Structures are given as C-alpha cells and as structure tokens.
Amino acid sequence: MKKENIATLLSTNAYPGRGIIIGRSEDGKKAVTAYFIMGRSENSRNRVFVTEGEGIRTQAFDESKLTDPSLIIYAPVRVLDDLTIVTNGDQTDTVYDGMKKGLTFEQSLREREFEPDAPNYTPRISGVMKVKDGAYSYSMSILKSDNGSDANCLRYTFDYANPAAGEGRFIHTYMGDGNPLPSFEGEPERIGIEGDIDSFTNLLWDNLNADNKVSLFVRYIDIENGTCDTRIVNKNR
C-alpha cells in the first residue's frame, strides 16, 4: 500500500467526519495516536474535548445550545492498564468493559454496530494500542452498514504488530461530504508520521477543514516506560 501524506488527505477532504490515526513516531520511540471530530450542524459543532482521568470526553461548549447529546457526547479515549482505547462513540466503554473482563478487542465490539443515524448509518471506528515492556502493537476496527442498508453490519478488524517507525494508519467515518454521507471504504490508509508531538498536532489541525473542524486530541506514548504526552486543540475556546 502506498504511503500517503496525511496533510494532503486532510486538506483535500472537506468532511472526513471523525478520524483515528495510530502509528509510531519517526524516531521509533513513541506510540502515536490522534483523534479528531468535525461537525456540520450547530449541535455537532458545539463541542470541546476535556480531560477525564487518563483519557478525554466530549462536552458541550455552550450547554444552552445542546439539543441532543446522543451520539455526540461520549468518552473517545480511555486507558486500561497498558491499553489505550480510542473510538468515535460510546463503544469506547464497550471495549473497555469487554477487555477488562478478558474479551479481545474484536469480541468486545461484537455487541455493537454502526450508529442509528439514518440515512448515514455512520460507521463506528475504533482502535486499541498495547504498549508494554518495550513492545508495541495496535488494532483498528470499523463497523459499517452494508452499502447504506441497515439490514446487515459489516465488521472489519486490522491488526498491526511491531509497527514501523514513521508510519501510521488513518481511518475515518466518511469518504467525503454528501447526502447521505458516504461511509469509509477499504483498509485504513497508510500514512507517514513525522516530527514531535507539537509539529504533528499543528500539521493535523492546520489541514483539517477550517469550517468543519471541532476538536483534536494527540498523544505520544513512550514505548520503553509508558509515559505519555498529550495535546488537545479545541476550535471553541
């Protein structure tokens, strides 16, 4: 698979929706993840990321303008021991609870499917990173409708052992803008990861569509000792 330029992928897509990036830093020392949200409606745009424990949660920026919290208020990132879970919905809790009970990532998601937001049926995208004793691996998942039909949920899981330095995978909910919104297709896109956490954060934020971007989370985890560095950027301040 060709390695794509993440700045180009973002700048040429006005509405990828919500996106997850997981990979390894250029120097090979850090496990990298990023999660962003976008919005077209006032309700979707009225959000910020806030820290919650070792993870984050979405929160209404102006509570008086919040009309429907379903599907937009959730914890995108949670940490379970040596696992970092990143998703685009409340399936973060499903994965957390399932893996805490000894289920695999894939098994934990068996009880979930795409979002009930007809006619879009937004895919549920998820990722889990394992950093332990100097070893690093990750998995990504997408649960999507069968070509826009709610009769069947298509389930895909992608596993990445010992990921290469300076590379990552990018999965997002939509191929672009539209009505209905076209679901992501294919396996997660292979991208390059360059620079430190600040330069990578700025690169992502600067190339997300200025009108539609809402919030961005980026985390670098030291593979040797598990310490992490986090950045959060909110359009609403």
Explain what the structure shows.
The protein is mainly β. The chain has one domain (6-234): Glutamine Phosphoribosylpyrophosphate, subunit 1, domain 1. The protein is 15% helix and 41% strand. The chain has helices at 6-11, 42-45, 91-100, 105-108, 197-207, and strands at residues 19-24, 30-38, 47-52, 55-60, 77-80, 83-87, 124-132, 135-146, 149-161, 167-172, 189-192, 213-222, 228-234. The chain has a six-stranded antiparallel sheet, covered by helices on one side. Strands 5-6-7-8-9 form a five-stranded antiparallel sheet, covered by helices on one side. A hairpin with a 5-residue loop joins strand 1 (19-24) and strand 2 (30-38). The longest helix has 11 residues, at 197-207. It is globular.
Short précis:
This protein has helices at residues 6-11, 42-45, 91-100, 105-108, 197-207; strands at 19-24, 30-38, 47-52, 55-60, 77-80, 83-87, 124-132, 135-146, 149-161, 167-172, 189-192, 213-222, 228-234.
